[in-house]
């Protein structure tokens, strides 16, 4: 018997997936080992789940997978750091005497191909992620289990301190890379042009000040910007501009970019930093965000030109700007659109990518509204012919900026999108009635609101076919909403053909999905002890589609359900988090004939089922058009 293993790495995480070619009924779990390929030191990875159901939480360091085997076939190793060169191997475990476990020596896998932890995806592209307070159990450890309102409020206040340990952990690579980008640009004597929606983080403000007259900042109309920020930057010699599309001091329509362009001493654009990360303490530490660095002179120049156009437009969105925004700038495999556009121009290539996805589509969205991109992804999820996973995060604030609701949905192939009920609204809040005995304490959504934690999925990303040469990543500041396309300042980047980057973002998304799926499962009355069974990972089990996807094999359709929870089967144990990773991968395995037949059959069935749906849609469209025509006629008569 052989256990095939794959490992994917980013700057500080590795996702490991394994699949036995033959399963033994004696197996109860798996031991996972990591080897440092520089020192040759081997470490047995730890599990955060106790050996048996009903036991109390394990120590913070976890428990060796020799003593508590992993009851799954996908795991994320968070203990690696940047530049680590590592490999992994898997051994099946059997039950031993007196509640112990013994390895099945015949099952030991080969070591994986060495993976180097790095955010550098090649081709001048680098991707980094923060951790955010979505990692609720990590926060619980930082506050030593005291999740009272006062404790969480004090925790949030402490995150503004650059020396704070929790700040450094939660902001992760995102903060580090923003600071490194600015520091390196300053050392080179470069100029910078930044367009920032909102800013209040003093460490980031401090990193801008050394540029003096070489620094140029366009501040948007985000409500979180502190009144003193412009004065501080101006006092340090930077040129500070303002732009407010609301013309009334409101945050919407939003001047929503978060980019910085570095130019050399002669004004030639060199590189640009973009992504979803707001330059606020919550953007760094409580929201979940991404940072993308593009070292490409053509793309960087387009961002620099856009900065000038925004400044020249003042507080307006003139037709000429929208027309300019509607034409992408492309170089090599990178394209960038700016919003607002005419006719949702930036959505058209993305819709084509979603429609033509062959293997998988993964996504994170924040307040997309009635987004055509979300609609297209939901169609692919219901067609159930590719692997689809996504999280849609929502938030509503009062006029004074206080959060009044936090919600969201998970989306997966073959299942309806699932709204969480009050006790398990995003991002977490597993109630005491359905919390596993071995889980660390978590805090409720109401407590999150009371503390002003703003623990939301703010990363906006779509990944198509991450293991294919035709892969694509779509990201930037854009919320993928119609309102953002029609009214906001935004940037949307499409990168094709970079598998390492696509896998990095895919694993970022997968970790977020797993986090919410698990809590949704518990909130729907799921039995947490189900994770002690391997049945779901075996051929024909509920996890087969997920495992085949990460093993780069043909993905069989899931059994389609017409209702119920999208999280009926748990995706991840409570100890997992929203952090994920990637590396280059070998070619796909040859297709298995049985799966190919099943997939072809499912496609035919799906096509047949879509015919009445199309007719119903056409009828609905016609009715809607008639209704609109009548309303228009009545209005004209009036």
What does this entry show, briefly?
It contains 15 helices and 27 strands. The protein has 638 residues and is α+β, with helices and mostly antiparallel strands.
Total strands: 27
Rg from Cα: 25 Å
The major pleated sheet works out as: 9 strands, mixed
Unreliable parts: 398-405, 419-429, 561-638
Structural class: alpha+beta
Q: How much of the residues is beta strand, in percent?
A: 15-25%
Summed over residues and divided by their number, the pLDDT gives a mean of 84
Note the gap between the termini: 79 Å
Structure description:
- It is a single chain.
- The N and C termini lie far apart (79 Å).
- 30% of the residues lie in helices and 23% in strands.
- β11 and β12 (125-129) form a beta hairpin.
- The protein has 15 helices and 27 strands.
- With 638 residues, it is α+β, with helices and mostly antiparallel strands.
- The longest helix has 45 residues, at 593-637.
Labels describing this entry:
single chain, globular, 638 residues, nine-stranded mixed β-sheet, disordered C terminus, eight-stranded mixed β-sheet, alpha+beta
């Amino acid at each position: 018997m052989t256990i095939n293993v794959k490992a994917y790495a980013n700057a500080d995480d590795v996702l490991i997936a394994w699949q036995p070619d033959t399963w033994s009924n004696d197996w109860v779990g798996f031991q996972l080992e990591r080897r440092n390929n520089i020192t040759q030191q081997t470490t047995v990875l730890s599990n955060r789940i106790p050996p048996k159901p009903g036991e109390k939480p394990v120590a913070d360091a976890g428990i060796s997978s020799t003593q508590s085997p992993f009851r799954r076939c996908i795991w994320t190793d968070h203990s690696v750091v940047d530049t680590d060169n590592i490999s992994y191997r898997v051994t099946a475990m059997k039950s031993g005497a007196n509640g112990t476990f013994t390895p099945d020596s015949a099952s030991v896998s080969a070591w994986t191909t060495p993976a180097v932890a790095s955010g550098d995806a090649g081709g001048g592209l680098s991707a980094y992620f923060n951790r955010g307070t979505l990692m609720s159990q990590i926060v619980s450890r930082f506050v030593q289990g005291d999740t009272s309102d006062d404790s969480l409020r004090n925790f949030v206040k402490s995150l503004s301190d650059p020396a704070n340990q929790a700040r450094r952990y939660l902001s992760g690579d995102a903060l580090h890379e923003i600071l490194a980008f600015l520091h390196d640009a300053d050392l080179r004597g470069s100029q910078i042009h930044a367009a920032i929606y909102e800013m209040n983080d003093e460490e980031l403000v401090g990193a801008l000040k050394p540029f003096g007259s070489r620094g140029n900042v366009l501040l948007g109309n985000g409500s979180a910007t502190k009144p003193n920020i412009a004065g501080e930057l101006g006092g340090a010699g930077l040129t500070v501009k303002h732009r407010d599309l609301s013309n009334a001091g409101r945050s919407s329509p939003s001047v929503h970019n978060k980019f910085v362009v570095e130019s050399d001493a002669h004004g030639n654009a060199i590189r640009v930093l973009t992504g979803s990360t707001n330059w606020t303490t919550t953007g760094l530490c409580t929201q979940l965000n991404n940072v993308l660095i593009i070292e490409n002179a053509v793309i960087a120049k387009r961002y620099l030109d856009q900065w000038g156009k925004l400044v020249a437009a003042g507080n307006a969105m003139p037709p000429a700007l929208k027309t300019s925004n509607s034409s992408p700038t492309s170089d090599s495999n990178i394209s960038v659109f700016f919003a607002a556009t005419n006719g949702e121009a930036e959505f058209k290539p993305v819709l084509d990518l979603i429609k033509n996805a062959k293997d998988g589509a993964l996504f994170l969205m924040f307040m997309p509204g009635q987004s055509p991109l979300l609609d297209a992804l939901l169609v692919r999820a219901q067609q159930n012919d590719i692997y689809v996973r996504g999280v849609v995060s929502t938030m509503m604030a009062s006029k004074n900026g206080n959060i009044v609701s936090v919600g969201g949905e998970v989306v997966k192939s073959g299942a309806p999108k699932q709204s969480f009920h009050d006790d398990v609204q995003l991002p977490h809040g597993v109630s005491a009635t359905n919390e596993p005995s071995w889980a660390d304490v978590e805090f409720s959504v109401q407590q999150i609101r009371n503390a002003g934690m703003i623990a939301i999925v703010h990363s906006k990303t779509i990944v198509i076919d991450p293991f294919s040469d035709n892969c694509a990543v779509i990201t930037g500041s854009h919320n993928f909403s119609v309102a953002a396309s029609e009214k906001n300042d935004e940037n949307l980047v499409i990168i094709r053909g970079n598998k390492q980057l696509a896998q990095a973002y895919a694993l970022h998304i997968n970790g977020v999905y797993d986090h919410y799926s698990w809590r949704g499962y518990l909130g729907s009355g799921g039995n947490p002890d189900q994770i002690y069974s391997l049945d779901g990972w075996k051929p024909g089990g509920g996890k087969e589609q997920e495992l085949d996807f990460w093993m780069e094999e043909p993905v069989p359709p899931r059994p389609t359900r017409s209702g119920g929870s999208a999280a009926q089967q748990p995706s991840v144990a409570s100890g997992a988090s929203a952090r994920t990773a990637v590396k280059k991968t070998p070619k796909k395995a040859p297709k298995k004939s049985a799966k190919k037949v099943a997939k072809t059959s499912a496609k035919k069935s799906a096509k047949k089922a879509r015919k009445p749906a199309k007719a119903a849609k056409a009828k609905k469209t016609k009715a809607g058009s008639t209704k609109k025509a009548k309303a228009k006629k009545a209005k004209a008569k009036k």
